Amino acid sequence: MTETLCPPAARTPADYKSATKPVWCPGCGDFTVLASLTRALAALQLPPHEVAVVSGIGCSSRIPAYTACYGFHGVHGRALAAATGLKVARPDLTVVVTGGDGDGYSIGGNHFLHACRRNVDLTYIVMDNHVYGMTKGQASPTTEPDWDSKLSPGGTGVRSFHPLVIALASGATFIARGYSGDPGGTADIIAQAIRHPGFAFVEILSPCVTFRPEQRNWKQQVRPASVDRTDDAARAARRIMTDDGFNIGVLYCAERTQYPLRRERVGGAVAALESEFVL
Ligand code: SF4
Ligand code: MG
Questions:
Q1: Which numbered atom of ligand 1 lies nearest the CA of 133?
Q2: Closest CA relative to residue 97, chosen from 52, 134, 40, 132
Q3: How far is the CA of 102 from the centre of ligand 1 (A)?
């Protein structure tokens, strides 16, 4: 009897979703970012057990629990530090980091600078809604200075953090902006970011419909970037500094030496790992 060898079925986005149902508010932009991530992973046909999703704390940092990949839900602002260690020790894994503007640009700001500078081969997806959603609506680093709210009456008066400019100045080699209301385009950007060899930063405008309901209007404001990506940092800086924050697409992509990764895979035995730390 001849054995029939069937080719493995192609993976679909559903293969990257866990059985855990998201607890986000209805209409939250993070739903479609999750869908875009699973579409990107399916487009790349990455085995789920070869992908790790790492996060900090916040609404968007719940994403690892909603995927069927390996996940690590860390502490506030430290996702990039944990992800860097993981990627250096296990370069065979695709490591995706997810989080929000409060987590990533405030307490996590220092790690953001140095992950860009080191050019660690990670994909960093930030769902930016210009507010701390999980803790009920405080101003975040990207909040507009005149955003009037109960917690910041009359606005903070503090200049907004500009994550794309900071990423470029710090040495990120892939910089893109997406919009959660464009899941197909965002999935394409995430897939390109994952394929990029080096630190890929993807800022995704993801409305917080509960504390920033006016962000529903973003769908009228976003547009595809009129100029294609560049590998010229000075040109990219001019474009990013002068745009209004609603140009969508890959804005900068260049090559630079990556942070060195471990050449040999770490063994599974705890004793072997411990032996490396014996003084
Ligand atoms: Fe999304 Fe805002 Fe609700 Fe958090 S509070 S789940 S960011 S809509
Ligand atoms: Mg936020």
A1: 5
A2: 52
A3: 13
pLDDT (tens digit per residue) in 39-98: 999 999 999 999 999 999 999 999 999 999 999 999 999 999 999 999 999 999 999 999
pTM over 0.90: yes
Residue range 72-85, pLDDT digits in tens = 999 999 999 999 99
Q: Is 138 in the pocket of ligand 1 (CB under 6 A)?
A: no
Residue 227's domain comprises 20-275
Atom of ligand 1 nearest to the CA of 29: 1
Specify the CATH number for the domain of residue 37: 3.40.50.970
